[in-house]
């Protein structure tokens, strides 16, 4: 339809191609999805893949590397936002890589913490709470015994089938 030898820029070709092959309604829908995209329960890699897919429809919201980084950071989990807050990345790819590294470090830390936690049912997890007990001979109700003493002692625990239970009085 154009005279022979007409030259188009990449931006002109891309705009004409999208207008011809992708309906405006689809572009609006994908833009809405992009603007609502959050990391949520996804890992960084899943979030980055969805972000890259939808950013093609984001127009001026993500038309530069700097804008892509800002949009991506804004919807990362708050823990990752905190860990990456003081780091400036040169490119969007470096930001994604940094987020993946921080996420892996956090998961490794959690696994190490869990590994070091004492096993359920061991005496070491039972807190030592002291209780007030009466020492000396037991007395019948309404009898006066001036020689009673009070002291503190830790509770006595019995272990049955891997659980810690206080003794039955």
Walk me through the structure.
By secondary structure, the protein is mainly α. It has a domain at 10-109. It is 47% helix and 9% strand. It contains 6 helices and 4 strands. The strands form 2 sheets. A two-stranded antiparallel ribbon has the order 1-2. The chain has a two-stranded antiparallel sheet with strand order 3-4. A hairpin with a 2-residue loop joins strand 3 (158-160) and strand 4 (163-165). The radius of gyration is 33 Å and the shape is rod-shaped. It starts with 9 loop residues before the first helix and ends with a strand. The mean pLDDT is 83.
Residue stretches low in confidence (pLDDT < 50, at least 5 long) are none
Structural category: mainly alpha
How are strands sequenced across the largest beta sheet?
Answer: 1-2
Mean pLDDT across residues: 83
Distance between the termini: 96 Å
Instruction: Give the overall form.
Output: rod-shaped
Oligomer: single chain
